[in-house]
């Protein structure tokens, strides 16, 4: 069953509840989603753990908690075209974040990436051939690997790290396609930047049944006193094999 886009959590100063400092922390959290370090050696990526058949899509329910407020929404990742770029097979990959609060614009990315770079142990953003970003109803704008890496696309698709910890349990995750069994990787790293010191904790849960391989991303940011500042959870809601391009005219 294909679910419609609902919304992705965003922080907005409109309510006055979330300060500019929390907005900065949120941005740092997103960029650091998969930059976790643990005790033993393993590889951890963002959402692209494996390359599915073209036409595959996956949507995640997302929850962001910050400043005492909770916002929910969805994130969608899909493969919408298989082409030859020179002598290399490549995929058109689209990533969509849609707000549920009705006040923040939907954000969409369309990226052409070589197939060999869309797998475990590789940072696909570093190898983007062409890419566009669209904010709300504005015209799509061309972008590149450097800009993508600094934003949400880079956080969601970021490549491998060493020294993460494999979780022993097998987790059952319900979604519209039934119950999924997933294995996890967890870790944490210290953050010591200007005006920010604390710890980032992360869990990534994998399932071979989910397109691109990731069932759950779970992140928490703690300040220097150990108090939770931000929590972001992405949990698979639905997936399928009938993806329709969001930005089909961009080549």
Keywords:
single chain; 251 residues; mainly beta; YmcC-like fold; 11-stranded antiparallel sheet; 3 helices; 11 strands
Percent range for helical residues? under 10%
For the largest beta-sheet, the strand count, sense and barrel status come to: 11 strands, antiparallel
Overall morphology: globular
How widely separated are the two ends?
29 Å
> What is the CATH C level class, in words?
Mainly Beta
CATH topology: YmcC-like fold
The CATH architecture designation is Beta Barrel
| Tally of helical segments | 3
Beta content: over 45%
| Number of separate domains | 1
Determine the structural class based on helices, strands and strand pairing: mainly beta
Q: What Rg, in angstroms, do the CA atoms define?
A: 17 Å
The total count of strands amounts to 11
Which stretches of 5+ consecutive residues score pLDDT under 50?
A: 1-25, 31-44
Order of helical and strand elements: HEEEEEEHHEEEEE
Mean pLDDT: 78
Largest beta sheet: strand ordering: 6-5-4-3-2-1-11-10-9-8-7
Q: Could you please describe the fold and organization of this structure?
A:
With 251 residues, the chain is mostly beta strands. The protein has a single domain (19-240), classed as YmcC-like fold (Beta Barrel). Helices cover 10% and strands 46% of the residues. It contains three helices and eleven strands, in the order H-E-E-E-E-E-E-H-H-E-E-E-E-E. It has an eleven-stranded antiparallel beta sheet with strand order 6-5-4-3-2-1-11-10-9-8-7. The longest helix has 12 residues, at 20-31.
């Amino acid at each position: 069953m294909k679910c419609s886009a609902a919304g992705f959590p965003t922080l907005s100063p409109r309510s006055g509840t979330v300060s500019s400092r929390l907005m900065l922390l949120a941005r740092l959290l997103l960029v650091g989603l998969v930059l976790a370090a643990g005790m033993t050696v393993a590889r951890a990526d963002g959402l692209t753990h494996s390359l599915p058949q073209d036409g595959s899509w996956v949507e995640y329910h997302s929850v962001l908690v910050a400043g005492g407020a909770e916002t929910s929404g969805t994130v969608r990742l899909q493969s919408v075209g298989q082409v030859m770029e020179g002598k290399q097979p490549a995929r058109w990959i689209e990533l969509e974040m849609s707000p549920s609060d009705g006040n923040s614009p939907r954000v969409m990315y369309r990226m052409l990436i070589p197939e060999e770079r869309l797998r475990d142990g590789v940072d696909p953003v570093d190898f983007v051939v062409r890419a566009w970003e669209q904010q709300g109803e504005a015209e799509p704008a061309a972008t590149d690997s450097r800009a993508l890496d600094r934003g949400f696309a880079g956080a969601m698709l970021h490549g491998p790290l060493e020294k993460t910890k494999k979780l022993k349990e097998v987790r059952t995750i319900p979604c519209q396609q039934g119950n999924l069994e997933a294995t996890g990787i967890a870790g944490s790293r210290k953050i010591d930047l200007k005006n920010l010191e604390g710890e980032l904790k992360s869990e990534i849960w994998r399932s071979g049944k989910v397109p691109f391989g990731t069932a759950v991303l779970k992140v928490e940011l703690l300040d220097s006193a150990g108090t939770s500042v931000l929590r972001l959870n992405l949990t698979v809601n639905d997936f399928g094999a009938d993806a329709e391009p969001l930005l089909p005219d961009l080549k």
